[in-house]
Amino acid sequence: MAILSEPITGVEEVKNYIDGEWTDSKGESRDVVNPVNCQVIGTVPVSTRDELDSAVQAAQEAFWEWRTTPPVTRARYLFRLKELLEENFEMLSRVQTQEHGKTIDESRGETRRGIENVEVACGVATLMMGEYLEDIAFGIDEYLVRSPLGVYGIIGPFNFPFMIPLWSAPYAVATGNTVVVKPSSEVPFSQMRLMELVEEAGFPPGVWNVVNGGREVVSGMLDHPGIEGITFVGSTPTAKLICEGCGKTGKRFIAQGGAKNFMVIMPDCDVGSTITAMLTSFFGNSGQRCLSGANLVMVGEDDDFYNMFMDRLVEATSSIIVGYGLDESVQMGPIRDKEKKENILGYIESGIQDGASLRLDGRKPNIKGDYPETCFLNPSIFENVNPNMKIARDEIFGPVMSVLRAKNLDEAIEMSNSSNFGNGNAIFTTSGKNAREFRYRIVSGNVGINVGIVAPMAFFPFSGMKDSFYGIVHTQGKEAIRFFTESKVVIERWF
Amino acid sequence: MKLKTTSEVISLVKNLEELSSKYYQDLIDRYSQEDELFSSFIKENTKNATHIQRTYYSVISDALEGCFAFDLDASNYDLDLELAQDASYDEALEKALQIEETINKFYDQAEEQSRSVMADVPRAFKMVSKKKNKRIACIRDMVNKRQ
């Protein structure tokens, strides 16, 4: 099977996009590395606070004219962007694979989900409508309008370089705000390619800006008086900092954090479909998802069912093809970088030390193609895990499955709810009663019933509870419209 | 070789339809019989591949089992397009029948295995399979009339 062509050739310089111009940064730069072969494919600026300030200033200056542009006109820019995204679908997908490592199916899926958010935001004219009531008193009317607020900061993670900023940016600009996006420095090309299309779509200068960088840009966003609000997706510790920082400066925020998701397997499940779903849930995107399965909870005391299920699951997992995602036959890519791989190896070691049984050892990767092992792992499966072990409690963010047992559904639900996280938990069952019980009692923002990756569509909010989410409203859909606007209630009387 | 990912299967769709088109073009060039019919087959092949690709691209989601959906043996769909220099038209039609039956077997099996994935994709496979069944009936009819 031939490898699909790489869209980034040579070493490309990533630039900031500020006020409609591609700008060279005055800060240092760092390498962007393809984790498959450890080749440098680009350089990305570590922008300074001054550069962030320029972007915010440009966004502020663009705000009033953009805000007074009719929503239906603003939507037309987004419709044009959507066309351009479809025309460049394959290129955008291959860029994600080359800089992140995910498989081409995963990248195409990410591209599609990102575009869906642009589609939903195109409906802003309806979504932003307010309310009106005549004669609240004789001759006096009252109404509510939704107004944009100004400049928003959008901070993207490394695991979905194209899609996740689109959970926010299209809604922000559709509603009349302007934005400054900070992509992850590990994977900046997806946003750069997106911005080339934003530019081609003709968005006025200053409406949609990108500043690449690290902590200085993030803390700059938190401090900046010109930024009204921030959306963030990443780890829980950083989500907490965002939440605290925004609290101090009165900014509104959406801060999506980490997860430890429980996949509860009932003995009445459809075994074949469930096993396929578990492969995607635990090992898709190499386990680097806030919706990835982490703990597999086998319910019931039937050892025959347990052994049959586990034998089939281990067999299916063992045959997962690991390699370069531009090879269409590859099912799992590498870990994003060496440091993250080392972190995962540390957890595997702790599982062994704590007494769990490493049923499938993925530490020595078996890679399709001639690539260094540097960032690669194969899937690993632990059995005999108890809920107090580190591997059962902490977010590992890698292709490691911990298998626990619960006597009954009650125990499985309590086990899941004892986690500090509440992001994407699921049950696999053919019983409506079990499903309802689980759905009703589980403390989780996103709930799956026979679905292993509970990723809400763009017209639903991406929910989250406990330490998986800080804030009140969420990204995507109508809640994003609420986040990016404030209600202005008007009481009107004429003499 | 096992086909496990949706992207591989979609690539195979394109490949099979292109090979089939190549065969019908060869028949047109060699025999000058049923040119219009075979040209319509070639046109339909292109439409089939485009339809399935478009469906895949419009519903592929990283959240569903795109990388793990299939377990197909690619060797089951190898097409033998070789036609001897002196092959008769009857032999050519028999071969066309074999080609279509092989391709249709792929669509049936792909549809079966993709049911737990993205609903639009198995529907697309099923739709193309229906067209292929009609085509098989048409070619069989041609063969029978000549006997």
Please report which band the strand proportion of chain A falls in: under 5%, 5-15%, 15-25%, 25-35%, 35-45% or over 45%.
15-25%
Q: Strand arrangement, largest sheet of chain A?
A: 16-18-19-14-13-21-22
- Rg from alpha-carbon coordinates of chain A: 23 Å
Class from helix and strand fractions of chain B: mainly alpha
Percentage of residues in helical conformation of chain B: over 70%
Radius of gyration of chain B: 16 Å
User: Helix share of residues of chain A?
Assistant: 25-40%
Number of helices of chain B: 4
Number of strands of chain B: 2
Q: For this entry, what is the oligomeric state of its chains? A: heterodimer
Question: Helices, strands, pairings?
Answer:
The complex is a heterodimer of chains A (495) and B (147).
Chain A: E1 12-13, E2 16-18, E3 21-23, E4 28-34, E5 39-46, H1 49-67, H2 71-87, H3 89-100, H4 104-121, H5 124-127, E6 131-137, E7 140-148, E8 151-155, H6 169-174, E9 178-182, H7 189-201, E10 208-210, H8 215-223, E11 227-233, H9 236-249, E12 252-256, E13 261-265, H10 271-283, E14 293-299, H11 303-318, E15 322-323, H12 338-353, E16 357-360, E17 367-368, E18 380-383, H13 390-393, E19 400-406, H14 409-417, E20 421-422, E21 424-428, H15 432-441, E22 446-449, E23 465-466, E24 469-470, H16 477-483, E25 485-493
Parallel strand pairs in A: 1-5, 8-9, 8-11, 9-10, 11-12, 13-14, 13-21, 14-19, 15-17, 18-19, 21-22
Antiparallel strand pairs in A: 2-3, 4-5, 6-7, 7-25, 12-24, 16-18, 20-23
Helix pairs in contact in A: 2-4, 2-7, 3-4, 3-7, 10-11
Chain B: E1 2-3, H1 6-31, H2 35-59, E2 72-73, H3 89-113, H4 120-146
Antiparallel strand pairs in B: 1-2
